[in-house]
Prior knowledge:
There is one protein chain. The protein is α/β, with parallel strands linked by helices. The protein has one domain: 2-Layer Sandwich (Nucleotidyltransferase, domain 5). Helices cover 22% and strands 27% of the residues. It has helices spanning 3-9, 54-67, 88-95, and strands at 14-23, 29-37, 42-49, 77-80, 100-103. It has a five-stranded mixed beta sheet, covered by helices on one side. The protein starts with a helix and ends in a 27-residue tail after the last strand.
Amino acid sequence: MTWREFVQAHRQxxxxxxCFAVETxxxxxxxxxxxxxxxxxxxxxxxxxxNPSASWVVQxxxxxxxxLADRAEPIRFLIRDRDQKFTDRFDDIFRSDGIKVVRTPCxxxxxxxxxxxxxxxxxxxxxxxx
Length: 130
């Protein structure tokens, strides 16, 4: 099965995670962590911070995992890239909920199932998460 076929076949049970940067009016850079349900394209802005760390990302994952039980169809897969902030502790949160973590291949920025651009939002709407 190709990657495209996998994403298409499991779209309703896929969750992807990524970050994007936003420049504020005060020339400060904030990083927004977001999760997107690929089937519905529902975006969940997990949080924003000027200094994303592995422990901050883990805490955001914990908070999101509490809300996943409310879904009619369970999430089966989480797609993430190989950023060092996504540690084993991050993965363990999702694994404990029965979600398989799928890491994208090296140097494959479009393998997370998201449309071109950071999160599929037009550039003028990129700051809505903060």
